[in-house]
Write a structure and sequence with these properties.
The complex is a heterotrimer of chains A (about 170), B (about 375) and C (about 500). Chain B has about 375 residues and is of the alpha/beta class. Chain B has 14 helices and 13 strands. The chains are: A mainly alpha (about 170), B alpha/beta (about 375), C mainly alpha (about 500).
């Protein structure tokens, strides 16, 4: 079994279970609220069964899930270097996802207006961009958000938790 | 050289962070004892995404500012979600009661409170109520209904289907009126905005629908061309609490009138009272308020400003021109009276789980679960 | 005033997360004090051009800032990676202009039968059309039909998260008030498309475009030539777009996918779609552009908005003093034509302005990833938060970003999921109303339902049969040509 087949199988299983769970969860609702989720779930389940059967059949025949003889997919133009590329530098991917998680946590803690410019500055600085680029990017982002979104459009970003805890 | 750049970079980091933090720190805004809003910015929170409401609030806020000491800058911000609950909960629980934020609660949120709905985290009795905006609604019939006018409804061809978004106080009143007339009637839930109902009436799929009175006034000619006419209005409430015809819509009977005409023996019955209650709920269209625990001095200033602004002849004329109907505003005393009477009317067995009104206003219940 | 409207429209279209609604919020207060016709031109111009500039992030970054640019990004982004962003953008501008012109001509042609068309459709027909759009997206935007349809189904299921149930009890939302008005589109669409692109950019540590920057390639003439060579495709796509616009409630997405479907179906090499086929840019852009004048007609003649944006415009029009009615296509035809021409002229002006602008915007494709990654991520995060201005938006953005990364690399198409999420609410409404009004007879008693149903089945079955035949031929020693298309990178 190739990695891509395993991922396909897991996703198929995941969606099938989501469909099943949805049918069970709306069981208590009246007809009106049940009708559409049940129709959508049945569609999901039918197609996941179809997809699952195809994956297992292809696994047995040693084919890729698209029915191609070669097991390398996706090709250029679809998902770039595909699952294999991701495997090759899993550490890098993990690091980037970690950074995005950090940004999200920072946003929760100190808000969009501080967290994002700080993230921009730090990311660029850590990647050895010249200081003026880091400053212009972070400052430009801040100025744009402040002037256009907050002052002109009256966008109300959520109050960060740190400010909330400090009673600000 | 490398070391130097790195050092300079690090040194520069400190003022950069400090500058960002200082500039973006939210401005502290506790009101001074001598109330003046000079140089302040007041936020009007709308718990909806409606462009029409934003437009109205933008228009009104200018006049409110004129009547607040210091003529502050007014901005309108949206906090939509949860059918209006998110915005109301937010203003009630998370906004400082310093007079720099005002908002409104729409009918569904207030009904939610009266019926102990899930997610309600506010108490209208503790809000610093500033006033209410009333609105009348109108039921319509199309050519497929096969009737010549409201009082001809007994001659309707076949079942009368009534397009609605959901079952609510408006459909409840219509159901009771149709029951009184002895007509075969069915509420068809699931429609979107009034325009979707008009399309279905135009294509003959449904025979009746409803819309707000200003909404109707704005498209009267178009609806006439589609052979869609007013059936009845829900009505106004006068100072004595009676349901009356809207002064601007005098030729169309009210729901209560129709009920009484079709079933004179039912006057004073629970059903009759329920039709009146529906009109009361309609009257609590939008309740304007400040967060609880706002200083009474600030509340009084706001109440005066809001009422004076609402009665400004220029605003009223502008409103009528833009929205096609008069701006119906009730001051805080009228607002409190209306809210309390509506909540009290809903707090009867008729509207509680198991009661007829409850069944007519709510479409069903989850199996195996009791509604709170 | 129209120019101001155009500039604002271009700006809100360009920045993911803003869009027409924000444009309205910005401009409405100003429009109040204007003469009605000036105010109309002002707002109409703004709303007309947002779909012109939303193509730019879709092509350059691979992130469709609005749902209307999803199909365009399928082929536009691969073209950008090949260093042909200028060509793709120019072709999209020309296609938009031609699309609106074709729609205007069709409007004049359809005028006498407009009323009959609009009221011939009931809830069952609307439901079938929505499903057709969805299945087109499911079958075209990926490498595997079953994966596309599973994703579409999942999108539909996501759209059923709501509080608006018969009982007032939340469905699939529990006590999370944030979800009571449903799963918002913006954080999902930005998360699912932007985060995977950001991760891959950071991983590759290279610019978006893999070719060296060529200043000579602005694409001005190349894009025009592409459009002129594909004039018949533009007419077909625009006609479908106009019809989708006429029919109330459908919106640009169905138009977009019908148009994209036509391009794929009529191409000699359907496999090239999703890998940078210029016809995959031209068709959806022409369709979406044509849908706007199309949607204007039912809005102003019957007060029945052709799509969500038109519903807002209708409210504003009425406040500005315009009353919808059949006289808008009889005695007041000049006012209606004025509005149609505002859309056409605004599109032309926006295209010219965008041509000047794109010279600089294309440079984004050549910026180092260390600069692009944090800026794109920050912009998208801010854009996502514009939905409800709540931390819930941030959480959804992140979650769907992670899902999006898995989907992208496992080659599970993301577009059908978004389409399901967009169309789900409408589909649920139409399905329930069809059943409520007509029982299950709507399946058997309505000829238009059969016709749309047959087209929908054909969309699924015909390519499968074609693939099967070609596979059989391949077994006999001839080359195989299996898949219809692939999703964007």
């Amino acid at each position: 079994m190739t990695i891509s087949q395993l991922v396909d199988l897991l996703l198929t299983l995941f969606f099938g279970l989501v469909g099943l769970a949805a049918i069970i969860m709306v069981g208590d609702f009246p007809f009106r609220d049940q009708l559409f989720p049940v129709v959508a779930s049945i569609l999901i389940i039918i197609f996941t069964i179809g997809s699952g059967v195809t994956i297992i059949r292809n696994m047995r025949l040693g084919l890729d899930n698209d029915g191609d003889q070669e097991s390398i997919r996706p090709s250029e133009g679809r998902a770039g270097d595909g699952i294999h590329g991701v495997q090759q530098d899993f550490k890098t991917v993990r690091r980037i996802i970690g950074l995005i998680t950090l940004l999200v946590l920072l946003v929760f803690l100190i808000g969009h207006m501080i967290a994002i410019p700080v993230f921009i500055f730090l990311y660029m600085k850590l990647n050895r961009e010249p200081l003026w680029i880091c400053l212009v990017s972070a400052g430009g982002f801040y100025a744009f958000t402040r002037a256009v979104l907050i002052e002109t459009m009256n966008v109300a970003f959520p109050v960060p938790y740190l400010f909330d805890w400090l009673g600000l | 050289m490398k070391i130097n750049i790195s050092l300079i970079s690090r040194l520069l980091l400190i003022p950069v962070f400090a500058l960002i933090a200082v500039v973006s720190w939210p401005s502290s805004s506790s009101m001074a004892a001598g109330v003046s809003f000079k140089g302040k910015t007041i936020t009007i929170w709308m718990p909806s995404k409606s462009v029409g409401i934003r437009l109205f609030l933008e228009m009104w806020s200018g006049y409110i500012s004129k009547n607040l000491p210091g003529n502050p800058k007014m901005i309108v911000k949206g906090k939509p979600g949860g059918g209006g609950l998110v915005g109301v909960n937010f203003l009630y629980n998370a906004v400082k009661p310093d007079g720099l934020a005002m908002g409104y609660a729409a009918t569904p949120a207030m009904i939610g409170y009266a019926t102990n709905a899930r997610g309600v985290k506010f108490d209208p009795n503790k809000m610093s109520v500033l006033g209410i905006q009333r609105q009348n609604w109108v039921a319509l019939y199309g050519k497929a209904a096969g009737i010549k006018g409201p009082f001809d409804v007994k001659n309707a061809s076949g079942e009368l289907t009534f397009a609605a978004r959901t079952k609510n106080h408006l459909t409840m009143a219509t159901t009771l009126v149709m029951d009184a007339a002895g007509v075969k009637f069915r509420v068809i839930e699931g429609f979107g905005p009034p325009s979707t109902m008009f399309q279905a009436m135009g294509s003959g799929e449904v025979k009746m629908a409803y819309t707000s009175l200003p909404g109707y006034v704005r498209v009267t000619d178009n609806l006439n061309s589609l052979q869609i006419y007013p059936f009845y209005q829900y009505g106004d409430i006068d100072d004595k609490g009676n349901v009356t015809r809207d002064k601007n819509f005098p030729n169309v009977p009210t729901a209560v009138e129709l009920y009484e005409k079709f079933n004179p023996k039912g006057i004073g019955s629970d059903d009759h009272k329920a039709v009146k209650t529906a009109v009361r709920i309609v009257a609590v269209n939008r309740t304007f308020w400040l967060p609880p625990k706002t200083d009474q001095k600030i509340v009084d200033i706001w109440r005066h400003a809001v009422e004076t602004a609402a009665n400004d002849p220029e605003l009223r004329s502008k409103y009528r021109k833009k929205f096609g109907a008069p701006f119906k505003f009730g001051n805080w005393k009228q607002a409190l009276k209306t809210i309390k009477s509506s909540i009290a009317a809903l707090d009867t067995p008729y509207f509680q789980p198991g009661g007829k009104g409850f069944k007519l206003m709510y479409r069903g219940k989850k199996k195996g679960k009791k509604k709170k | 005033m129209m120019m101001v409207g155009i500039l604002v429209g271009m700006f809100v279209g360009l920045v993911p997360g803003l869009g027409g609604l924000v444009g309205f919020a910005l401009l409405i207060p100003f429009s109040l004090s204007m003469e009605p016709l000036v105010g109309l031109a002002f707002l109409l111009a703004m709303s007309a051009v947002t779909t012109q500039t939303d193509t730019i992030p879709a092509v350059i970054l691979g992130v469709p800032g609005t749902a209307a640019a999803m199909a365009t990004s399928l082929d536009g982004y691969p073209l950008a990676k090949k260093g042909q962003a200028g060509r793709a953008l120019c072709a999209s501008y020309y296609a938009s202009i031609f699309g609106t012109l074709v729609a205007t001509a069709l409007f004049l042609l359809f005028l006498p039968i407009l009323r009959a068309v609009i009221f011939a459709f009931g809830q069952p027909e609307f439901f079938m059309l929505v499903m057709l759009g969805l299945i087109l997206a499911g079958s075209l935007a990926g490498n595997s039909l079953s994966r596309g349809l599973i994703m579409a189904g999942f999108g539909l299921l996501l759209s059923t998260v709501t509080l608006e149930t018969s009982t007032g009890e939340p469905r699939f939302a529990g006590d999370i008030i944030y979800l009571w008005e449903g799963v918002p589109l913006l954080p999902v669409i930005l998360g699912i498309f932007a985060i995977p692109e950001v991760i891959d950019l950071a991983r590759r540590q290279s610019s978006i475009s893999k070719t060296s920057y060529d200043t000579r390639v602005s694409g001005l003439w190349w894009g025009l030539r592409d459009c002129l060579e594909n004039w018949w495709l533009i007419i077909k796509a625009s006609t479908l777009g106009t019809i989708a616009g006429f029919i109330p409630g459908l919106g640009g997405q169905v138009a977009e996918w019908m148009a994209y479907g036509t391009a794929v179906a009529s191409d000699e090499n359907p496999k090239s779609f999703g890998k940078g086929n210029i016809r995959g840019v031209i068709a959806p852009e022409a369709g979406t552009a044509a849908q706007k004048p199309g949607a204007l007609i039912p809005t102003i003649t019957f007060g029945i908005p052709g799509n969500g944006g038109m519903a807002i415009l209708l409210g504003v029009f009425m406040i500005l003093g315009l009353r919808p009615g059949p006289e808008m296509v009889t005695t007041k035809l000049d006012a209606t034509m004025m509005m149609v021409w505002v859309i056409v002229v605004a599109n032309i002006i926006a295209a010219i302005l965008a041509l000047f602008l794109q010279k600089w915007l294309i440079l984004l494709c050549y910026l180092r990833s260390t600069i692009m990654v944090p800026l794109v991520l920050g912009t998208m995060l801010v854009g996502a938060t514009m939905a409800n201005q709540s931390f819930g938006d941030v959480v959804l953005f992140f979650l769907f970003g992670v899902f999006g990364y898995v989907f992208k690399h496992a080659d599970w198409p993301r577009v059908p999921l978004i389409m399901g999420l967009i169309m789900g609410k409408l589909a649920e409404q139409y399905l329930f109303l069809s059943t409520n009004l007509h029982g299950f007879k709507w399946l058997t008693d309505r000829p238009i339902v059969w016709v749309i149903g047959a087209v929908t089945i054909a969309v699924v079955v015909v390519p499968a049969i074609k693939r099967y035949r070609k596979a059989n031929l391949a077994d006999d020693g001839q080359p195989a040509n299996q898949s219809v298309s692939g999703e964007d990178d």
